[in-house]
Amino acid sequence: MGESKNQSTASFLNDWAMKYNISRVALNEPLVHLQLFDKMLAKDSRTLLKTTTDYDIRRIQGGLYHHLGLQTALSKILSKATVTENSIASL
After folding, report:
1. What is the pLDDT of residues 24-67, one digit of tens each?
2. Are 66 and 56 in contact (CB under 8 A)?
3. By CB atoms within 10 Å of each CB, which of 32, 54, 75, 76 scores lowest?
């Protein structure tokens, strides 16, 4: 029964986080508190959401290289930004 309850809670939180685009940081806080009631629940949003950890690390002369995707990250942030006359004036 505990496993079923845990799966149900985890599924609910996963669906909720995805539906409302809840950030990993924001999801981590309730997970910490929910751990007090259900020790089997994921402690971290990356575990709950089954975040992939596949990285393209290349061996280059003198070490290893991983491109963090700065352009992709900035595009994502800027696509969510709201630009107004006041925000431009404050720059």
Report:
1. 999 999 999 999 998 889 999 999 998 877 778 888 888 988 77
2. yes
3. 54
